Amino acid sequence: MPELPEVETVRRGLAPSMEGAVLKELELRRKDLRFPFPADFARLVSGRGITSLSRRAKYLLIDLDDGMTIVSHLGMSGSFRVDADALAETPGDFHHPRSKDEKHDHVVFHLAGVGKDARVIYNDPRRFGFMDIIRRSEIASHPFFRDLGPEPTGNELSADYLAGRFAGKTQPLKSALLDQKNIAGLGNIYVCEALWRSHLSPLRAAGTVVTEAGRPTEELLSLVVAIREVIADAIAAGGSSLRDHIQTDGSLGYFQHSFSVYDREAQPCSTPGCGGTVGRIVQAGRSSFYCAACQS
To answer: What is the CATH number of domain 4-141?
Structure first.
């Protein structure tokens, strides 16, 4: 599933074509994705101006000029592409080719832009993604968003905040980090990478990085820095581009080639002087990659 950096990459790739454009028509080529489309979805948004694109956790938010917001989640295999010329091929070299089968092009945004029209096409072979429309002023209280924790890139995420969430918790540190009520948008890949950078085991109890007085330990301070840095590095690299994810211009991000532990089972740990080997365990049905020699 695309994680926060991948969704941010999509947002940045779509913004030049969508922000300021008029959504002439929303073409729905089926009745549903993971869930049915909202009633009268195409009618409600067609003819509206697109004022801005933003992101909350792993959700893409498309703000319209009437105060409504299209909410899109990519699911497992969803991707957008921008087509400014119906006859043109989508540019880019694909290490992991995405679907080009038109039968998986389920939603088409027909846009009238400044000087040039364009189509933004949503393709989703597995149809685990979804779209909804919500009044912007009600997003914070909507079931999709109301229980989400702070963004890993925002000022609200701090060691003091996590100390308050983790104090007394016996659940594994990795599970606590994946809990979207603690941190919004942080997924399996970047949790593994952040734990490796801060030399913390995914098996460790979350409460052990908090002092008896409820204050963050130096380890928790290091973890917060690692979370911020790994997300920033991945966004800068254009997302991980695992499996079906691609950037909207057709090119792939390359952060996957910089993974230190994720999907590197049985390879040497790259911590200087460690000498350990990356292992894999399964926690709550998900693979955790870590080095037992330097993560404790």
So the answer is: 3.20.190.10
